[in-house]
TrEMBL record, chains A, B:
Keywords: Aminopeptidase, Hydrolase, Metal-binding, Metalloprotease, Protease. Its cofactor is Zn(2+); Co(2+); Mg(2+). It comes from the Archaea. One of its GO terms (molecular function) is metallopeptidase activity. This is Aminopeptidase. It comes from Halostagnicola larsenii XH-48. Pfam families: Peptidase_M29 (PF02073).
Amino acid sequence: MDERVREHAEVLVDWSARVEAGDDVVVSVGPDAHELAVAVAEKLGERGANLCTTYSSGEIERAYLRAHDEEFDDGADHELALFENADVYLSLGGARNTSATADVPSETRQAQRRARQDVREARFDTRWVSTVHPTRSLAQQANMSYEEYQEFAYDAISRDWESLADEMGNLKELLDEGEEVRLVSSGTDLTMRIDDRTAVNSAASVAYDSHNLPSGEVFTAPYATDGTVTFDVPMTLNGETVRDVRLEFSDGEVVDHAAEQGADVVDEILETDDGASRLGELGIGMNRGIDRYTDNILFDEKMGDTVHLAVGRAYDACLPVGESGNESAVHVDMITDVSEDSRLEIDGEVVQRNGLFRWENGFSE
Amino acid sequence: MDERVREHAEVLVDWSARVEAGDDVVVSVGPDAHELAVAVAEKLGERGANLCTTYSSGEIERAYLRAHDEEFDDGADHELALFENADVYLSLGGARNTSATADVPSETRQAQRRARQDVREARFDTRWVSTVHPTRSLAQQANMSYEEYQEFAYDAISRDWESLADEMGNLKELLDEGEEVRLVSSGTDLTMRIDDRTAVNSAASVAYDSHNLPSGEVFTAPYATDGTVTFDVPMTLNGETVRDVRLEFSDGEVVDHAAEQGADVVDEILETDDGASRLGELGIGMNRGIDRYTDNILFDEKMGDTVHLAVGRAYDACLPVGESGNESAVHVDMITDVSEDSRLEIDGEVVQRNGLFRWENGFSE
């Protein structure tokens, strides 16, 4: 076995999920994530955790959903019970075809999503972590060879997380103390309120309220957004390429929008519900192991020198206890490059210019 | 998809497990059983059942068990809860390597087995069915090409189960009414008591207390065995080939034994515990779709023209309600060919001679 697979498993089990003896762990395995699952099982055996392995296949999901009449009862008590009794949930993504569910009607998907809300919530109540095994299908989606993609993915995953967490702590502190953020870049001049909000230092560990591996971003839940933003990093949304999306906000709400490509998909997303035209997240990518766009949001949104905003649902972790932020059935991240002609200000003070943070060498006010 | 895979799924879901709308179904998928899992998911979608898919990989099990210190706590509450809340459990075997766990110490395996007794019982409390997807590894174990093995397997699985169930009902009736069975064949003359015992018409359906697909055997739980039996169908037990095992019984217990090959494995099995040297099962194979030995007990024991006996644990379904039969940690089936120079008698009446049953053309008293 490739030593990098073992290292990935070790980071996931120890740093990310903080697995301990006696933990009841659910490991979800994608069809091409088998090798990572073997390495994770070894680590879980060493730690003395209890392992239950589930199988997550787009092809199985597609066959099931297309055959279903869409009358989902509130059942799945067995799956609910599984997660209600689990301490840890590790999702090892590894599709053979990232478009495997492309011809499932979105109504069916949404109907099942509604019926399984309780299962999803039970899963989020565990120490859950999502990661992916670098597969050929992900390499293809990234327009990369398999070997090249493996190197890319392991660079992103095998960070010195402890020291990145320390560095990201600087930004979290500034965001927690700040009241207003302003982002200025080519095609972008946007202000957002963040007072009372708590930033998450997303250091790829449940100990930091962070549930992705790789991670490496600091995010919060902004509101009262005003101005214009242009997302110049392309991405696939609902199966379509979307490029150069421009959103204009007034008093927190999108009042105008356009896109060079994929405008219809953006329309669709913004029209989902009321919350879909308000921001749910402002995130600052700080993982410099991720140096290129690979059309996979797990990696893209953490890329160094980028900032992303999501329309839709806000994360509870960013909100005052008991308060609910922007609510929506969607949470769609879009990304903008801030490596040039850009600055991020908090309460009028520049904290990042052209990708460099104020605590870094070469930063200029 | 091969139409035979769809048919396999349909038999499994409808005939075997009797799945209905709203059933909470756990489907366990072997690494090479993916295609069958897709077909099963389609059927479950059509029926409106709820699907939770688990992944059963020998390689994952091996990595986990070899890394474990053998101190299994009684945990795995999450897996227990999954099965306690399930209506149906479908196991789709499909290993890539049927020897994947060969180097797991048997003590570790046994320690885990003991710790997971409750999970196993919860699984047996569902409408459970075990089947296999015909894989290359099973073809190899059977000494067959892949295509040849597929044909073999689907012949065994795609029976007219309704009419086989009717036919097997004849034998069940004779066994239920009978008091003593005598089996005479080359190297075999054995008598067993069966009064008070109930035979299972194992017609590959939970509606018949039958949990294997394929099935096609009638079995009961004999006792007070006397005489000698020779098992001339070879098989792999605990990783070793075992051939021409001879057991001599007196008053229910093995008093002498020998084997042409693999005698040490037979020793080991018989010495497991007290119950391991008494019979737990007498089974008569009646699936004529299975016409050859493939070193897979799921198929071999149902082969037409064979009789098998198991040392070890008896099935509750064969015993008077509330009574416990032979108890043991093992249940090891061994098979004898009865196509020639053989007869099976119940209370002195010949019911099968040289493979032919008394209700068949050509049968001679």
